[in-house]
Design brief:
Layout lengths: L55 H4 L14 E4 H7 L5 E2 L1 H6 L10 E4 L9 E4 L1 E2 L1 H9 L3 E4 L1
Parallel strand pairs: 1-3, 2-4, 3-5, 4-6
Length: 146
Amino acid sequence: MMLHELKPAQGSTKAAKRKGRGHGSGNGKTAGYGHKGQKARSGATRPGFEGGQLPLQRRLPKVGFNNIFATVYSTIKISDLENKFEANAVVDEAAVVAAGLVKKTNDGIKVLGNGELTKPLTVQLKAFTATAKEKIEAAGGKAEVK
């Protein structure tokens, strides 16, 4: 198959409806806008406009809170460390990104305690859960907060 032989599947494309192109087209003259009135004019009101009444989106209360100062961690699991790193390796942010475990480090990387660890690793990351720290040290490694 060549590029010039490609075409869409049968029935998947339709010609655009050409509005306002004469009464023989079935959608001519007023082009579906009816006769006169505000909605027949160009520059009709924006979506949500209620004729001067306070719009619904402004009548409803604001909800929620976004803490712009919160620390956002990228997370990895103990099982990820087991699968991606050799014994006695030093695991830091650069190594984790290079291994493809996280795309963005955000405010740092946090290790979660999911899975098992059998190799001794020196893990130098921003944060650890209590179970993650226990499992790393139980396997003969070190969990160092950077």
